[in-house]
Amino acid sequence: MAVSKADSVQRDATGDIGSTLTETLKNSELRSLAPDLVELPFDSVLPPGILKDIPVLRTLDAIWRTSRTVRDYIFARKLLQFLRTLAEIPPDRRRAMIDRLEADEQFGKRVGEQVIVLLDRLDSIEKATLIGRAFKAYCEGHFNAETLQRLNFAVDRVMLRDLAKLADFRHKRRGSYHAEQAFVNAGLGYIPHGMATVQVLPVEPLCDALLQHVLQ
User: Fold this and answer.
1) Mean pLDDT, the chain, integer
2) Per-residue pLDDT tens digits for 148-205
3) Residue 11 above 70 pLDDT?
4) Would the pLDDT of 38 be above 90?
5) In angstroms, rounded to a whole number, what is the distance separating the alpha carbons of residues 194 and 182?
6) 27, 91 Cβ separation under 8 angstroms
7) Per-residue confidence (pLDDT) for residue 172, from 0 to 100
8) What average pLDDT does range 53-60 have in this prediction?
9) Count of alpha carbons within 13 Å of 182, Cβ hemisphere only?
10) What share of residues in the chain are helix, strand, coil (percent, to 5)?
11) What count of other Cβ atoms lies within 10 Å of the Cβ of residue 170?
């Protein structure tokens, strides 16, 4: 089956977006991402100045110009929201963050790729802000790479309406069955062995990190 030029361009751009995100996080000044840019209309194009300064947006623009699907639009919103959350972190500190993550055996040299996969999978644009806050807190030294991965996993797996109940759960105030099960499935809670009644308890350090640095 013949592959169209548009499909070929989109595949090439998608394959490159992970590395250009890493380059962007290491070197780009993100303060030029104005808040209103995150709310871009469906039929908009990104300003030329932004495309020149931020490499990952050039790749994103190439994808957008060849397809303009709803999925691409939603992904663009997520990526812009993620970058905007990190805008106050200067490039040298983001570069140090990437260097630390690349030295971690779980991240390796695929930091940008892992972020792209995660953002694409999120079930809401709002969660991209939460992922950005987790990376920001890691950049500031509040926790290690393993905790960052676990927080990202939890944000991905738990509905926003259940995340809103995390503080009550952390302080052992009983919540809904569905929320507690979601917390267990996301690694935020556990069921102790040998108890006469079923009780879900919080994984306190992880819940605290999520509440203090991501859901603030």
Assistant:
1) 84
2) 999 999 999 999 999 999 999 999 887 788 999 999 999 999 988 865 567 899 999 9
3) no
4) no
5) 22
6) yes
7) 84
8) 82
9) 19
10) 65, 0, 30
11) 20
Task: Name residue 85's amino acid.
Answer: T
CB atoms within 10 A of CB 44: 12
Of the candidates 104, 96, 107, the residue with the CA atom closest to the CA atom of residue 139 = 96
Rounded CA-CA distance 136/85 in Å is 8
Q: Cα dist. 195→113, 180, 184, 198, 204 in Å? A: 42, 17, 16, 7, 19
Question: Residue 41: what pLDDT?
Answer: 54
Reference 28, options 106, 80, 105; nearest CA is: 80
Query: Between the CA of residue 201 and those of 104, 181, 183, 187, 209, what are the distances in Å?
Result: 30, 11, 9, 11, 16
pTM equals 0.86
Query: Which residues make Cβ contacts (< 8 Å) with residue 44, sequence separation at least 6?
Result: none
User: DSSP letters of 1-26?
Assistant: -PPPHHHHHHHHHHHHHHHHHHHHHH
The single-letter code of the amino acid at 174 is: R
Interacting residues of 80 by C-beta distance below 8 A, sequence separation 6+: 33, 37, 38, 40
